[in-house]
Design brief:
The structure holds two protein chains of two kinds. Chain A is mainly α. Chain A is built from 15 helices and two strands. Chain B is an all-alpha fold. The chains are: A mainly alpha, B mainly alpha. Chain A: It comes from Aristaeella lactis. Chain A: Keywords: Sugar transport, Transport.
Chain lengths: 308, 334
């Protein structure tokens, strides 16, 4: 206490000013780090993407300003960038609704009380642990083998075990389901394991969201004679909507940081030593992702009702 | 509704029974029971199906790691090895240099997690409880950190730590030269200390949400009793923040252990990270033990995967229950 009083006499700080100074003390480490590492690196990224960079252990880094050369190269003469970017963005857009609905569905399933719930929860969150890259590749390989229906990689049996997608396409095509819808469903079926793997955190967030819905709302719905189906659409869904936005942001960022286009940027600077081009890739893909994310969040936000 | 008692006139007619409340009651009960049964069955099928998709590769890897050479080439063997062997494990332990490197990894992961907990809780508390100029702008920067992942700035980060000289401070002591921090664990620790570690933005956000949900009276009481700000934070607020601490700790441990971004960007040495060592395991074993078939090399790799995953699965299973409670109570979503 004496310390504060003495300081007070020297600097003549009011209570509010002292409070502000304390606040700055608490966030100081992050503030320095953000300015030096994060914002600094973002600025550098923009600078690098407009330059030709040379790295040398002895002399350090050389930069030569070349204007938009790297961007022009990325969009006109680079062999795979545009395709990779498009497919990464499309993957993200296809996965997003499926992950959201799958995780909401599973969260509702796990939110009820039933025997062995603890075990089931533990299993469902395993993918969060198993998604490491080094480990993930081994598991991807194992998944492919399991999906093909064999334990030992035996080509003949593998072929017998796979599902003929073309057959089902034709079967449902006869039912006059539009091809684009069918294509999406087939795609979805092929992605099931990647969707389940990508939903761990989202399920947790949705469970937490479901827990925060006051039970009285359901009680009212029941007294008014709402069926389970109605109370889902009139109570659960609107109440979960704000968390839908949180989950959208998480999913898009998560998918983006493990996307093919990021890997392309990594390869470009690690293996091809084309540092400027790699930076241009990062800038373009990040801007596009943020744009899409902003649009989705804006659209969701317009339809969201905030309870509090 | 007009009801006819079934025993009217001393006779029980079918018509009378149909219209009785006892029948309606019984019918509703049966229908409800059937409905619950169908829903329960449906739920069971979905749960078992999804669990299968998640567990099948894991079971496959575990069983493969026990396969002997005969099992691996015998197409009749499915999942359960006929001649199980522990040779894969003894080789994987030997060439992973398992225990010493795992020790280093655990030190690294727990060290980073402790730093993350300390820094992110402080920053989250600062944003939650104090009013200062530019607060909303600065908090928007935290959100920017969540939305723009570190992957975007991987190359500038690489050069920052390759030629490490922040604000020219290092140069002052080193005769103007920069130092190369790649291949060490320093970049991760430095980034974490300055609140820019792996998903620090998310952790700051979680702590901020949690502290905002705690009643202000707690601190006021502490202040009246004469505790300073720092003391209030460490002795009063942190113990109250246990759910958020557990949530962040589990996330941080699991993600840091599984992380490949920091490991690859900073080329962290494979004598520190067991996951990095795993990447080269196949080549090392193939060369040292003259294992030529890809199929058999994979079996060694599977054993390595199991060894690498065991610690983090154990940690997760120990903390799992409290972790989920923590997420529910930490207001992570509010």
């Amino acid at each position: 206490m004496t310390g504060i009083r003495r300081k007070n006499r020297i600097f003549h700080l009011s209570y509010e000013q002292r409070n502000a100074v304390r606040g700055y003390w608490f966030i100081l480490p992050w503030l320095i780090g953000f300015l030096v590492f994060y914002a600094g690196c973002l600025v550098q990224l923009g600078e690098f993407s407009l330059s030709r960079i040379g790295l040398d252990a002895a002399t350090g880094m050389t930069k030569e300003y070349i204007g938009f050369g790297n961007y022009i190269e990325a969009f006109t003469s680079h062999a795979t960038f545009k395709q990779t970017l498009t497919s990464s963005v499309m993957d993200m857009l296809i996965d997003l609704p499926m992950i959201l609905f799958f995780s909401l569905f599973v969260a509702m399933l796990l939110n009820r009380k039933f025997k062995g719930r603890a075990l089931v929860r533990a299993i469902f969150f395993l993918p969060i642990i198993l998604s490491a890259d080094a480990v993930g590749s081994a598991i991807t390989r194992a998944t492919e083998l399991v999906n093909a229906g064999v334990s030992s990689a035996n080509l003949e049996t593998a072929q017998a075990g796979t599902v003929s997608v073309a057959y089902y396409m034709q079967l449902f095509g006869d039912l006059a389901i539009p091809e684009s819808v069918l294509g999406y469903i087939v795609d979805a079926v092929n992605r099931i394991s990647s969707i389940i793997k990508g939903s761990g955190v989202q399920i947790i967030l949705f469970i937490a969201a479901l827990q925060s819905i006051p039970g009285s709302l359901y009680e009212v719905a029941r007294i008014e004679g709402a069926t389970g189906y109605e109370s889902f659409w009139k109570v659960t869904f609107p109440m979960v909507m704000p968390h839908m936005i949180t989950n959208t942001i998480y999913t898009v960022v998560d998918r983006f940081s493990s996307s093919e286009v990021i890997r392309l940027a990594t390869r470009t600077y690690k293996e091809l030593y084309n540092y400027g081009l790699s930076s241009a890739f990062s800038v373009v893909s990040t801007l596009i992702t943020i744009l899409i994310l902003g649009l989705i969040v804006y659209l969701l936000n317009r339809r969201t009702f905030y309870y509090n | 509704m007009q009801t006819i008692h079934p025993a009217q006139n001393g006779k029980i007619t079918w018509q009378g029974f149909r219209n009785s409340p006892a029948y309606a009651n019984q019918r509703d009960k049966t229908l409800n029971g059937m409905k619950n049964l169908v829903i329960g069955l449906f739920r069971l099928i979905v749960i078992v199906g999804i669990s299968y998709v998640i567990l099948a590769p894991v079971i496959n890897i575990i069983s493969n790691s026990f396969f002997s050479r005969q099992d691996s080439i015998n197409p009749m063997v499915f999942t359960i090895p006929i001649n199980p062997t522990l040779e894969r494990y003894s080789m994987a332990v030997k060439y992973l240099n398992y225990l010493p490197i795992l020790g280093n990894t655990i030190l690294y992961v727990f060290g980073v997690t402790l730093i993350q907990l300390l820094i992110c809780s402080m920053v989250g508390y600062g944003f939650a409880r104090f009013r200062f100029p530019l607060k909303s702008v600065l908090f928007a920067f935290v959100l920017v950190m969540i939305v723009i992942p570190l992957n975007t700035i991987q190359f500038p980060l690489y050069t920052t730590f390759r030629f490490f000289n922040p604000l020219g401070i290092v140069g002052l002591f080193n005769g103007g030269k920069t130092i190369n921090l790649l291949q060490t664990a320093w970049p991760t620790f430095i980034m974490s200390v300055f609140g820019c570690g792996l998903r620090s933005g998310l952790y700051i956000y979680i702590f901020n949400q949690f502290f905002r949900g705690l009643p202000k009276e707690i601190e006021e009481a502490a202040l009246v009793d004469g505790a300073g700000t720092a003391r209030t934070f460490f002795t009063i607020m942190m113990p109250n923040a246990a759910p958020a601490v557990i949530t962040v700790a589990v996330f941080s441990i699991v993600w840091q252990y599984n992380d490949s971004f920091f490991a690859n960007t900073f080329n962290i040495s494979d004598s520190i990270l067991v996951t990095r060592k795993l990447e080269s395991l196949i080549n090392v074993i193939a060369n040292a033990e003259k294992v030529l078939t890809i199929r058999e090399q994979q079996l060694y790799f599977d054993a390595g995967v199991v060894l690498v995953l065991v610690p983090v699965v154990v940690i997760y299973l120990v903390l799992q229950r409290r972790f989920i409670e923590g997420v529910e109570r930490s207001g992570i979503v509010g």
